[in-house]
């Protein structure tokens, strides 16, 4: 860089657009599966992508937070803050996090808009009966056995997104099929 030149954000230098792609939905809906599949496909074509997974974030960024409404909100705002930083620097931040409350999701969207950063909400729309049959982490079984309370979609609220940029149905479909749908969506938005 020439003396006196101003450092520019990487995104501007490479011309690569970033975005936050928030995958919201019930436990076992398929959020992590789809986010990882999308990241893999983006990496394969040399795109920069990161997955900010709820479980991992709770171990580090949000350690100590619980599952009350207030703590869930704080968790979502923290993740949204980091996602926006990545996105504004040309990274596609894939966020497979339940984010059950519409006002929490809208606050994240609002901060992206205020910064001119693209924000895309993807509702992984899997019915609770299907999620509960999948029960990847055994949470539905634990709730049914009375070993756990406050499970989103069962005995804790999940506010279904009214106007997501994309709603993916996974019931009766293969992972490859739904992952391809997400990839096409990202292509249409100039992200893949
Ligand atoms: N079409 C599909 N798309 C995505 N996942 C699917 C599909 N069909 C079946 N599955 C399966 O559903 C399960 C979804 O689990 P996953 O961990 O992705 O859920 P999650 O939404 O991240 O849940 P949690 O909120 O608990 O982290 C996986 O075992 C996946 O293989
Ligand atoms: Mg997950």
TrEMBL record:
Keyword ATP-binding set for record: yes
GO molecular function: adenylylsulfate kinase activity; ATP binding; sulfate adenylyltransferase (ATP) activity
Entry-linked Pfam families: APS_kinase
Metabolic or biological pathway, per its Swiss-Prot or TrEMBL entry: Sulfur metabolism; hydrogen sulfide biosynthesis; sulfite from sulfate: step 2/3
Domain APS kinase: 17-168
Superkingdom of source: Bacteria
Protein name as catalogued: Adenylyl-sulfate kinase
């Amino acid at each position: 860089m020439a003396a006196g030149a101003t450092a520019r954000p990487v995104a501007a230098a490479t011309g690569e657009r970033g975005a936050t792609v928030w995958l919201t939905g019930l436990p076992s809906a398929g959020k992590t599966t789809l986010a990882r599949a999308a990241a893999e496909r983006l990496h394969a074509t040399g795109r920069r992508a990161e997955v900010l997974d709820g479980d991992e974030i709770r171990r580090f960024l949000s350690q100590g937070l619980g599952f009350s409404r207030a703590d869930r909100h704080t968790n979502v705002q923290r993740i949204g803050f980091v996602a926006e930083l990545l996105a504004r620097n040309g990274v596609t931040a894939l966020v497979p996090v339940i984010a059950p409350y519409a006002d929490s999701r809208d606050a994240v969207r609002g901060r992206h808009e205020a910064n001119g950063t693209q924000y895309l909400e993807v509702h992984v729309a899997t019915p609770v009966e299907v999620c509960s049959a999948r029960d990847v982490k055994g949470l539905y079984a634990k709730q049914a056995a009375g070993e756990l309370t406050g499970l989103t979609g069962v005995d804790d609220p999940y506010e279904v997104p009214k106007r997501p940029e994309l709603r993916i149905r996974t019931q009766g479909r293969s992972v490859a099929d739904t992952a391809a749908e997400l990839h096409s969506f990202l292509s249409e938005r100039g992200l893949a």
